[in-house]
Structures are given as structure tokens and as C-alpha cells.
Amino acid sequence: MAIFRERLRERGLKPAAQRDNVALTFFKLGRPISAEKLYVEVKKVNPYAGQATVYRTLRLLKECELVYERYFSDGKGRYEIVNDKDPRHQFICDRCGRIIEFQNARLERISFAVARELGVLLGRQKIELYGTCPRCLKEERRHSPAIRFFRRPHTKTRAPAY
Ligand SMILES: [Zn+2]
What sign has the CA pseudo-torsion 76, 53, 39, 128? Predict the structure, then answer.
């Protein structure tokens, strides 16, 4: 948030309460979110906030390179915090679009090995996995009980619960 304020100052933009509400809500959530959903969250903090402010603030955050927008198979854009120090990979559910972020040191080591083989210098890392999320799997199993779950192995993958 402090960096955002600093970047705005560099651009000669004055602080604005609504814009701050939007940015703060976004940073606090700390997960990829669509503009529409962010608007709903901002409304809880400031019922007077307008949708245009949400879009404008997201655009500003993007211009300040603090946020980036990505499009998924459902055609919707989601905004994410740019975070270089802490690589976060994603599992994206093909069915419901849910995103599960995770970290896995082994995957990151493999990325470095691949980069070495390619003869490239590795910058930011982001690995995307696609498939069916646990929630959709459960739903599916309810309809066709024959489908078995994969047993969860002992895991080194850290995924925040939300
Ligand atoms: Zn799903």
C-alpha cells in the first residue's frame, strides 16, 4: 500500500479516499479477484464507492506494475498482486474457475534446472496447473459415486485455505 501511495505521488496524483478503499481492499484480500467481485468487497467497506473507481484504481495499480490482469478459459480477467519474492503458482479449476494458489520448492528447483537447460536466465516464476478442484470433484462424485478420489499423499505443497 505504501508503495502504491509512493507511485501515485510520483505521478502527481493526490490521495483519494475511494481509491484507497479499493486498493486496500484488494491488497487485504491478497488473492486473484475479478473487478466485479472486488467491487462487491469494496462496497462492504465503503457503500458509496462507485464501480468506475474500482476499474480506474485497478488500471492505476496495473500501470504502477503492482497488479497484473490475467485471462482464464472462462474469458474473465482476474487481478493479481505482483509478487516477485514469493513465487506463487496456481491451480485453476476448468469447471468453476476457482484458483488455488500454492508454493512448492521442488517445482521451483525444477524451473531453475529447465532454465539452465534452455540457457536462459530465470526471472519471475509462475506455474499453472489445470484440472478439477476438490469442490467440483466432490460434486461430481455425488452424481457418479463410482469415481474414486486420489488419496492425498504426504505433501510439501503449501496451499492457503480460502
Ligand atoms: Zn471447481
Answer: positive
> Residues 40, 65, 58, CA angle at the centre, nearest 5°?
20
Average pLDDT over the chain reads: 83
The string of pLDDT tens digits covering residues 132-152 is 999 999 988 888 766 555 555
**Domains in the chain with CATH codes:** 2-79 (1.10.10.10), 83-143 (3.30.1490.190)
CA of 50 to the centre of ligand 1 (A): 30
For residue 130, the cross-strand partners are 92
- Three-state secondary-structure class, residue 124: coil
Instruction: Tell me how far apart the alpha carbons of residues 125 and 159 are, in angstroms, rounded to a whole number.
Output: 17
Instruction: State the alpha helices, DSSP H only, in 46-104.
Output: 51-63
107 CA from centroid of ligand 1 (Å)? 23
